[in-house]
Amino acid sequence: MSFTITDLTADGTILECTVRASPDLRRFLTGEPFRTSYDVPIEDVPEGVLAVPVLAQLCPVAWANGADVYVDEVDATFARALEDVKATLLSMYDFMEGGQLYARRTIDPDPIHGAGAPDSDRAGDADGGSGLLFTGGVDSTCSYVRHREDSPTLISVRGWTITPDRSDDEKWNQLRTRVTRFADDHGLDTAFVESNMLAALDHPMLLAHYKRFVDGAWYSSVGHGIGLLGLCAPLAYARGMNDVYVAATHWEGIDLEWGSRPDIDDYVRWTGTQCHHDGYELTRQERVDVIADYVREADPDLQLQTCNDRMDGNCGECEKCYRTAIGLRLSGLDPTDHGYPFDDADYRDVRRSLDRGEWVLGQDERYMWEDIRDRIRETEPTSPPERAFFEWLVDADLDDLVAESSPPLLDRLLRASARNAPNSAYNALYPAYSTAKSGLERVRSR
């Protein structure tokens, strides 16, 4: 079993290549060429670094199937990084089998200094610089606050939560506008990366095969740490970035199987650049505290954006919006001043939605509500509705709340059907699966 990468080209700002698979792996590819666009020319980036983005997406899929990957040229520093990341994923997941990377040429432009050493021939400042994957949410904003003295370039990626489909054009434009405004207000540069990585890979088929083994989806549980960082390689090389930061989602003491962790992200590197999993020593509420201190000291009008439903602001009614608003209150801020309309009456809605299982929660969210509960125990409520909510959450069984919100049986049956179907049958089955799933989501949202 194998994947083969061919026809790798860099034309101006566009990276493109073809990915082929042996017959038993073709179901994990859609047939689209892998394509990523940058806002800086990448034609002078070495081929071994240009291969990093596609390898970062493809290798975890290969390892899940015990398959090998073939490529013409690979950056030697990144090849070593892949071995380290592979070891982590194999130790994390029993279904991972491993596999080997085979390259005709393994290139080390800086063999003396090794991983993460600056390359004097690259574009950008001689002193290098840094980049930060940025959405404007709690985690990435906290990382900005922590590294603001370095003036990191804010990097936003289209291809995961915002798809390359035209239907998501408005969301992408809204995110670009918001990140650009933040950068202008804080004297920072921006970088925007657009990729079809989850359209070249057949992500629904990956979900059908591996959802039973993971708490989230394929990309969140397995692929997004190395995947998102790997997309940055040509950009980082072209702009001379020595460091790229990705904000931690979880924190010390949470042992969840998740695709972005210190023992994944801190291993990711290519010639001239070292990646960093940032803020892992802080809980989410402690990250909100960092932001609150910064707001009081320097940026009283700071706006956060965490909503998964909107990119032009926060809906104020989804689980993540409510959770963030309550976190801001616990850190001494008025959520309404920072993008979240919230008052005491909303505590009743939050409790009702959690009690009724109206939100699909995973272990991820369970730990975040537990973090809030820990802070509540140290906080004096300021109103009767707040007191009632605090008392309820302190006694709530969070495991039961997560179990109550598990995906319905029909979703699981549809995935199993797709998983076990031959390729030809799957091609006919998947449109029906998508239609049925969309119908279920519309019913749940009423």
Q: Which characteristics define this entry?
A:
Rossmann fold; 446 residues; alpha/beta; disordered C terminus; 11 strands; 18 helices; single chain; eleven-stranded mixed β-sheet; globular
Can you put this structure into words, describing what you see?
The protein is an alpha/beta fold. It folds into three domains: 2-278, Rossmann fold, CATH 3.40.50; 314-404, no CATH class; 409-445. The chain is globular. The chain is built from 18 helices and eleven strands. It has helices at residues 47-50, 52-64, 76-92, 138-147, 169-186, 197-200, 203-210, 218-231, 233-239, 262-265, 284-297, 319-330, 346-355, 363-376, 384-395, 398-404, 409-420, 423-445, and strands at residues 2-11, 14-21, 34-37, 68-75, 101-107, 129-133, 153-158, 190-195, 241-247, 269-270, 273-278. The protein has an eleven-stranded mixed beta sheet, sandwiched between helices.
Helix content: 40-55%
Q: Give the CATH architecture of the largest domain.
A: 3-Layer(aba) Sandwich
The largest β sheet comes out as: 11 strands, mixed
- Contiguous uncertain segments of 5+ residues: 111-126, 412-420, 433-446
Whole-number mean pLDDT: 88
CATH class descriptor of the largest domain: Alpha Beta
Q: Per CATH, what is the topology of the largest domain?
A: Rossmann fold
Approximately how much beta-strand content do the residues carry? 15-25%
Whole-Å distance between the termini? Answer: 45 Å
Count the DSSP helices: 18
SSE string, helix = H, strand = E? Answer: EEEHHEHEEHEHEHHHHEHEEHHHHHHHH
Radius of gyration: 22 Å
Based on secondary structure, the structural category is alpha/beta
